[in-house]
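PROTEIN DATA CARD
Card holder: Merlin
Chain length: 366
Origin: Lates japonicus
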Amino acid sequence: MGFNSLMRKQARNFNVRICTMESDMEFSCEVKWKGKDLFDLVCRALGLRETWFFGLQYNIKDTVAWLKMEKRVLDQEVPKEEPITFHFLAKFYPENAEEELVQDITQHLFFLQVKRKILEEEIHCPPEASVLLASYAVHAKYGDYDPNVHKPGFLAEEELLPKRVINLYQMTAEMWEERITACYAEHRGRTRDEAEMEYLKIAQDLDMYGVNYFLIRNKKGTDLLLGVDALGLHIYEPDNRLTPKCSFPWNEIRNISYSDKEFTIKPLDKKTNVFKFNSSRLRVNKLILQLCIGNHDLFIRRRRVDSLEVQQMKAQAREERARKQVERQRLQREKQLREEAERARDELERRLIQLQDEAHMANEAL
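Structure generated from the sequence above:
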């Protein structure tokens, strides 16, 4: 045990920094805490109940790892410096965001993470889809388009499009803003939550959405990429992350075994060949195994009746959305009545001025 680890063991508390996609939080934790204790604390601070999608990620040498829930935090290979930094991120993605994501905070965290991955080109996005997604991101931030408020240049400081898309065309920043604003103006009437959900509904159809990629070798020693996502396992050529050579859906996999750096995928159909591959790094193998188990568990869970907790959450979400809808309609009606009253007042003022002018002219004629 190193000196830093020994000092940690002797201390009663240690400090952590949690980085979310929106802000950072700092906590003081007890040395006996397990990963679950810290994770639950963060979820409570965020007001998040759909905890099964998320995890605490940290950097370790040349890869990343996820904090294990059942082990003590300090017994894991976490960074040595305090505060220990963890990233609160989505570890698993839904198959259908609109059907599965219940809480607004869950949806918002997914929106921020997916938007960041698209902008950093970890998810490939065609130009037209990029512009449409950018328009929904703008709506989520600024609300309804108002030409008196959102004047040319209001998006000058915003990062909205992947650099690859910008470099494809000889267009100025003003031209891109004009295109995005034209789409943005068409989304009038949506709330922030609705704009974020529209963003996710488009993004989830992109080829690289929700896929974790790993460099592997098959039993012949050929370099390949393994993709792990909500639907199953996919094998890619190293230079093509968009179209898999073959896929193994979770419902067609009988077993995944791991032994001595080698993974074996056994299809449900015993006539189909077993696929074997390996990764040279133990940490990566552990990460692959974690993601396989977690994604498969969620795949099975989606095909069962919702738990009582989830049913209650969905009922509460429906009630909250209905309440917001009624409130929004009330505000719209008040706004409409106010605008009508202002138009009537303006008309009366115009008529009064007209009558005053006519009276003035009549006096002059007399």
